[in-house]
Design goal:
Strand content: 35-45%
Distance between the termini: 85 Å
Structural class: alpha+beta
Shape: flat
Number of strands: 5
Oligomer: single chain
Radius of gyration: 26 Å
Helix content: 10-25%
Largest sheet: 5 strands, antiparallel
Length: 141
């Protein structure tokens, strides 16, 4: 009976020690460094994007306008230009960034030169308007 208890304890310890997590990671890190300056770029133009939204109770957000036009949720074109281009925080600004590509389809590089945020505090909420100016460039050939 005593050996049965010892075997049960050993089996429980082995079972618990066999449970664990595995972590898969790549041993190789791929890094690319691109060095260029403003002499390597051609200025195409400047575009202004904007987003207006209402916030209720501090966490419920409803987008009302994108680039001055009423927002239609079914027509989402979200553009993420944070990959070495520009960093646009928030869903509304990423939706507004589609205008940049429409204005300058040949552009390969974008720089955000201005970003403003105007907030009107209301009872149990706020109305916010974000505006950004973005310059578009392409590489010289």
């Amino acid at each position: 009976m005593k050996t049965y208890k010892v075997l049960m304890v050993v089996a429980a310890i082995l079972t618990l020690s066999a449970c664990g997590t595995t972590k898969n990671s790549s041993p190789y890190t791929v890094a690319t460094e691109l060095q260029f300056n403003m002499n390597d770029l051609v200025f195409l133009g400047e575009s202004e994007i904007s987003c207006e939204y209402d916030t209720y109770l501090g966490f419920i957000r409803q987008i009302s306008k994108i680039n001055g036009e009423p927002y239609q949720p079914g027509k989402d074109v979200k553009l993420n230009l944070s990959q070495g281009m520009i960093n646009l925080n928030g869903k509304g600004m990423k939706l507004a960034a589609a205008k940049i590509i429409q204005d300058y389809p040949d552009a390969t590089y974008f720089i955000k030169v201005m970003d403003t945020k105007e907030t009107d505090v209301l009872f149990l909420g706020a109305t916010t308007k974000r505006t950004a100016k973005v310059r578009a460039y392409k590489f010289k050939k």
